[in-house]
Specification:
This protein has 209 residues and is of the alpha/beta class. The chain is built from six helices and eight strands; from the N terminus they run E-H-E-E-H-E-H-E-E-E-E-H-H-H. The relative contact order is 0.11.
């Protein structure tokens, strides 16, 4: 049998699934003869199968509700927060929904991955994502320019002690500034190395949130 490498099902991301959802996915994969599958960062589903099988599975999974973004963000990885975790001090799903609906003037020029942690334990790894949000008892911390790849970088702290609305607005300002001042395919980590956190902070914090 030909070895098949894992490939992500494009467009499918599920942060929360019910037992019935899992049964439906399992039945679908069994139907198409898929022997191996896994969930990765941001709720992405990957399967080891031939291209035509991946296409068929992807088409049938279109029936699932999606956590869509309206702004070209690659994905938003969030922990649910105090609803499901004893350490949570905020609702990660609520603020993720607000960020997903941020309206940007133009498409983003490169991948932007966002991670939201509803407590200081940071299970979603916000320090090494393009945009990171961390909930504290005093409000949200917003970080920008992190990366977890071959050239890892800790995101710069832009502001802290923010309400949901202030945090979402700051994320919007950071993304707009990044979009307007970066070159095509330049990820936020390299962008921040180029301009420095002081310059970004001066731009996005020039007016009150």
């Amino acid at each position: 049998m030909t070895h098949q490498r894992f490939q992500h099902i494009k467009g499918f991301r599920a942060e929360e699934l019910t037992p019935d959802d899992l049964k439906i996915i399992a039945t679908l994969l069994d139907k198409h003869g898929v022997e191996k599958a896994r969930f990765g960062t941001g709720g992405r589903l990957a399967i080891a199968a031939a291209p035509d099988v991946i296409q068929n599975v992807s088409s049938e999974l279109q029936l699932f509700p999606r956590f869509e973004t309206a702004n070209g963000i690659t994905y938003i990885h969030f922990c649910p927060g105090y609803d499901q975790c004893k350490y949570g001090v905020a609702n990660g799903k609520t603020i993720a929904g607000k960020i997903s609906q941020i309206v940007l003037p133009k498409p983003l020029k490169a991948k932007v991955k966002i991670a939201i942690a509803a407590c200081k334990r940071c299970c979603t790894e916000p320090y090494i994502r393009d945009v990171g949000l961390i909930a504290t008892a005093k409000g949200w911390k917003v970080l920008f320019g992190g990366n977890g790849g071959g050239r890892p970088r800790i995101g710069d702290l832009i502001a802290e002690g923010l309400s949901d609305e202030q945090a979402v607005e700051l994320v919007r300002r950071c993304l707009v500034y990044y979009q307007q001042n970066s070159s095509v395919e330049l990820r936020t980590a390299r962008f921040m190395e180029k301009i420095g956190s002081k310059r970004l902070c001066q731009a996005v914090l020039a007016e009150s949130l």
